[in-house]
Amino acid sequence: MALDMTMMYLLHDALGRELQRITKVTARADDDPAQVLRTAVGWELFKRYLTVHHTAEDLHVWPAATAALTDRAGGAEGLALLEAMEAEHAAIDPLLADIDAALADRDTGPARLGELTDALYTGISGHLRHEEREALALIDATLTEEQWARFGAEHSRRIGDDARRYLPWILDGLPPQRAAGILTRMPEPIRTAYRDEWRPEFERLRLWG
What is the pLDDT along the chain (209 residues), one digit of tens a residue? Predict the structure, then answer.
């Protein structure tokens, strides 16, 4: 049975959406982009949810796939792909740190910001495409449903009480019919909280100023 990767693809789409917003913010000529990004709730949420996702993968996806492929005939190619995934993850955190350092440096930081956010866009977009094109099929072929569930549980545990922002964030901008289809998979209390509390609160956040 194929693993259910619905939420994985949704998260990838949400990260891509926010990357586009970040590059638009830093390209604005009518405002101080560093000030906008420095104070943006959207930037903090993007970093948090990206880090949660990659940490859960690093803890539960790549090690499980590596163990399944080790000593398997023909597993070398898959192991090389997993090493590439981990290397791509490792390259992202320094970019986030460099952007935050530029945001804190009010003298020379703004001049570096556009180049740094372009590098972030290129790095994460390339990683997501690489993962979807090659790594997800490998994950589906190597992880058991129990291992995949552990990844999901780790992801949920790290989101924790922030689910009230995470769910509206991941569904933001989706066509209503698709968002409704995702919500129908969730328990009724979650759907009610999303409709009555979480979504209205999220809309008041004004993520990007």
Answer: 599 999 999 999 999 999 999 998 887 766 677 788 888 999 999 999 999 999 999 999 999 999 999 978 778 999 999 999 999 999 999 999 999 999 998 888 888 888 999 999 999 999 999 999 999 999 999 999 999 999 999 999 999 999 999 999 999 999 999 999 999 999 999 999 999 999 999 999 989 87
User: Where would I find the H helices in the chain?
Assistant: 6-26, 33-38, 41-56, 62-69, 76-104, 109-130, 136-142, 145-159, 163-171, 176-183, 188-193, 199-203
Cα distances (angstroms) measured from residue 208 to each of 10, 102, 179, 194: 21, 18, 22, 21
Q: Residues near 139 by Cβ (< 8 Å), separated by ≥ 6? A: 3, 61, 65, 148
Residue with tokens 């789409």: 13
Q: Is the pTM of this model over 0.85?
A: yes
For 129, the token pair is: 């495409």
Q: What gap in Å lies between CA 65 and CA 67, rounded to an integer?
A: 5
Enter the tokens of residue 180: 């409704």
- Packed helices 76-104 and 62-69: angle between N→C axes, nearest 10 degrees: 160
Domains and CATH numbers, the chain: 6-158 (1.20.120.520)
